[in-house]
Amino acid sequence: MKNIFKIVLVSIVCGSTFASNTMGDAILNEVTTLSNSTKSFNTDPKKKDTKKYPLNNKNATDIFIENNTDSYLALQLINVASDNLGTSYRSGGTTPAGFDCSGLMYSTFKKFDITLPRSSHEMAEVGTEINPEKAKKGDLIFFINRGQHRINHVGMIVEVNGDEIKFIHSSTTGGVMISSLKESYYERTFKQINRIIE
Predict the structure, then answer these.
(1) Are the C-beta atoms of 112 and 73 separated by less than 8 Å?
(2) Angle formed at CA 64 by CA 62 and CA 68, multiple of 5 degrees
(3) C-alpha closest to that of 168 among 110, 74, 105
(4) Is 149 a catalytic residue?
(5) Which member of 14, 121, 149, 169 is catalytic?
(6) Residue of 14, 121, 149, 153 marked catalytic
(7) Where are any strands of DSSP class E within 41-197?
């Protein structure tokens, strides 16, 4: 009887150890699989796949960001600026309480640790001036308004469609809005386009 009891006890202990080892192996396999799959994620924000990492599309009806040749940073700059669509114009403003034109650009780029000069005419001295035919999303666009003799207005290009360039800016009359270079006023006052980011 004692021998039978010993055999049963040994079977239970061995069975538990086997079950425990089998469960441990299964957990180890799951962890290994998870670890291997995690390695495939791209953690470099400059190389993010926008299909896997969707951008803020709050203003998707206003801005088209489907061109895969556009830089990820440019699209993010556009998204940050467009979050302020409808915000009132405020002279000297750099916050959602109100922006002037250079204040909108300054605060937008600052969110990505890019510090631009505070005024539009100083911003026009930064980056590389390019031909309008080579304009891309994220480029800054400059104007000379109201009979001034130097640049006094700036926006950021959000869309290039053939020969039409659309840009986001803070207008004294409409606040933060998107306008087209085909509009007669902006066509007449247009000065230059600068590339700040590649």
Answers:
(1) yes
(2) 165
(3) 105
(4) no
(5) 169
(6) 153
(7) 94-95, 98-99, 128-130, 140-143, 153-161, 164-171, 175-180, 190-195
State the pLDDT confidence band at 22, using cuts at 50, 70 and 90.
very low
- Do residues 81 and 54 make contact, with C-beta atoms less than 8 angstroms apart? no
Give residue 152's pLDDT.
97
Annotation marks residue 101 as catalytic: yes
Cα 160 to Cα 32: distance, rounded to the nearest angstrom = 46
Residues 29 and 35: their CA atoms lie apart, in Å, by 10
Strands (E), 74-173: 94-95, 98-99, 128-130, 140-143, 153-161, 164-171
What is the sign of the dihedral through the CA atoms of 125, 127, 129 and 132? negative
**153 catalytic per annotation:** yes
